[in-house]
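Troubleshooting entry. Yesterday's outputs looked truncated, so today I'm pasting the complete records for two proteins to confirm everything comes through intact. If either block looks cut off, that's the bug. Protein one:
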Amino acid sequence: MEKLIEFFFPPRCAFCGKLGKSPCEDCKKNIRFISGNACQKCGIPIGDTALPFCPSCLRENFAFERVFPVFYYEGVVRKGVHLFKYRGFYQNAITFSRLMVKKILEANINADIITFVPTSRDRYLQRGFNHSFLLAKNIGKILKIPTIDLLTRVGYTKPFYNLSRQERQREIKGKIKLKKGYENIIKGKKVILVDDIFTTGATANECSTVLLENGVKCVFVSVLAITKFTR
């Protein structure tokens, strides 16, 4: 996939779209990588606190083991994700997935399967691709772990951008299902679930719950960026 994308699309900065290397020198100055003492669940920095979790994760009972975000979802990162999802900058998947792999390797995760958050049929038809699949496919290729399309969405879900935490949880509940035929393949396996943005964790949690209910041993979540949504 990577060679195909590089053949059809010239190298550009994944964050601003300018021709040349990625990230370009201007964007490199404005990118905030997640680093330091982080929440042991969602991965957001928590400073010098002695607690292992951020206030948000102390309130929640997430099904996944831990999230591994690369950036905050802000500034040039937000622009880069927008270019990727809505402007057809497919080549951004290469830069983004390499950065996500670096984070996974730093965490020393041993996984058996890579999968990804499914998109609805309407959004797939609108965009023409599932951005999470592109990220997952490249991550799997680099790590030499099989990428399997395990999950599907059922029914209609409202756009999440203006919904509260509780509304997102209610909206996604029951809307993720395991595809038929994978029940025996995933039993006892460690899975990395890939998505682009972690906001409240509602979607990642629902996907993880479905996987665990069908026999997966544990789920780690790899995302490009995390928001500061009511944290």
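Protein two, checking that the full record survives here as well:
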Amino acid sequence: MEAKQKKILIAVNDLVRVGGAELYTFDLIKAFATSESFEVEYFTFNKGLISKKIEEELQIPFMNQKKYDLIFATHNTTVKELFGLAPIIQICHGTILEPEQPSPLADYHIAISQEIADHLTKLGYPNEVVLNGIDIKIKRPLNPINKKLTSVLSLCQSEKANNKLQAICNKKGLRFKAYNKHKNPTTNIEQEINNFDMVVGIGRSVYDAMACGRPSLIYDNRGYNGNKADGYLRPENFAKYVKKNCSGRYLNRQYQENELIREFEKYNPEDGEKLRNIAVSHLNAYKMVDHLLNAANQLNWRNRLRKWKRLTNHARLVKHVYIYKKIYAFTKNEYFNRSHIDK
């Protein structure tokens, strides 16, 4: 007798555009979908570029069932929306932005870095670290890199950062291109990465570059993060920088043009293969599926008790999910769906 497929729902607030959480969700869905043990669906409030890719390339449908065996939810907004459909494990991608904060409604929490895990622990949420998952089968080296640096791809989301990088490349005679998810997004970034020797960015941009065997420079100047850099990623430093999601917050340096030129000069083509091996060992989305499923073992009575204790400090949120949400579903009266109810 064949084992019954587990119904898995993977949720994220937004799938309109290219971004770290969105691409993480895509790779995670694909990793789950490769196993015949799971029936996978997805949920988002806002469909768009990435949801289209999920449906067309992976043939994964939007949520259409009333109950699931397990939900993996990125962003506290999705936890609140899906509460009651299954046990929920919230995957937390940051410590700064409000939607990335832990929801008291979730049954357990996953942190994608040690920095986030420490943040969750400080707030009283049991958790464990499962690093960013990358589809290492698609994101892989396709073209060799040059012995001497000839080209740079920026995945920075800041015009300030890209202008500095452009100026440096012009001075040094390097080919330069920038992909900013807010201006010229691409859903197949691995193809672009493979056309350059080195990649500049933070977070998932660095992990994608590593998977493609590219040396990387950890730097960006995002509004919420500021001018932050860990510098050129030597393979032996990955274990340190990944503790803060290769965000620039480990060394917490501010780079101007002179500092960036210095880091460019550290380029070593041999680092590309070493970084690829690290990505295969530590950032493999297909292995992450097993890690995430093992986290379901933490849905025990101790953590359930901790959850109920947390909820005693969130009376309005409890009223929303247990009372107002049901009344709204029955009456469609917008009063019971207003955001202030659960604040």
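Both blocks look complete. Sanity check on protein two: The chain has a mean pLDDT of 90.
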